[in-house]
Structure formats: C-alpha cells, structure tokens
Amino acid sequence: MLRENTMDDSIEQTVKFSIEQKTKITIPPGGNFDEILSLARQLGEGISRHPRYAKLMEADARVRGDASAAEALKAYNGAVMKIAEKEQKRQPIEVEEKRAVERLRGAVVANEAIKAFMQAQADYAELMKKMNDAIYSQLEAPGEDTEE
C-alpha cells in the first residue's frame, strides 16, 4: 500500500560544494522557491571559497593586468571575428588573413599569463561539470550519491 507524503516527511538531498566537502540539506516535500534559492546561494558561497575559483580569479586579474596579454587577446579575437564575418557573408578569406590568425594564436598561446588563465579556466570548468552532474543525478535518481 502506498503511503502519502505528509508535512513531517522530508527528502534528504546531498549538495556537493566541493570535491572535498559534502553538506546534507533537508528539504520538505514540495520545497518552495525561496528554499531552493537559498540552497543555490549556499552552493554559490561554497564555490566562491573553492581553490579552483580563487585560482581562476587570480589568473583573470593577471591577464587583465598584463598589457601584452590583453593586446595579444584583443588582436587575436579581432582577427578571428573578421574571418567569421567574412565566412558569414560568404566572402573570400585571404591566405594572409589565415596566416595572421595563426601568428596571433601563437602569440596568445606563448603568453604565460594566458596559459595560466586557460589552465585555471579548464580546472574550474571541470569543477562546474561535476557540480552539474551531481545536481542532475539527483533530478534523475533522487537519493542516489554520485561518484566524484
């Protein structure tokens, strides 16, 4: 016989704030919007304290403070956008334009501040993927814990 949920029943869900830390949060059945927003804020606070987030912010500040990195990115992005616009308009792209993009890409890749930023960005993206996987696993199969 199926039992109806009562207000005293609760659903225990695990929210992973970081790879190292788990926090158990109890949400009453039919949790309201404000409770869910509160949990999202708690998750955001946990992420903001994670070393990968701190490293990303440090790397971002370093790139913004490095004039040569900023100039290399600006030049590269401008050249890529110019080619993309030409492709969209079905205009011919000159060999020299392609070479310029490759040369500028080389300058971007060679810049140490940009390299550090790209690594920090990849590490942070991996963290966020794991966060999303943990959330979606609870939407698909509530109560089951996921592998880290």
What would your notes on this structure say?
The chain has a two-stranded antiparallel sheet. The chain has helices at residues 33-48, 51-65, 67-88, 95-110, 112-140; strands spanning 11-16, 22-27. Helix 3 (67-88) runs antiparallel to helix 4. It is mostly helical. The protein has two domains: 11-50 and 133-140; 52-126, no CATH class.
Mean pLDDT: 81
Q: In which range does the helix fraction lie?
A: 55-70%
Task: Please compute the radius of gyration using only Cα atoms.
Answer: 23 Å
What amount of the residues lies in strands?
5-15%
Number of continuous helical runs: 5
What would the principal axes of the Cα set say about the shape? Answer: elongated
Low-confidence stretches: 1-22
For the sheet with most strands, the description reads: 2 strands, antiparallel
Provide tags for this entry.
66% helix, single chain, 8% strand, mainly alpha, 148 residues
In short:
With 148 residues, this protein is mainly alpha-helical.
What is the topological layout?
Elements: E1 11-16, E2 22-27, H1 33-48, H2 51-65, H3 67-88, H4 95-110, H5 112-140
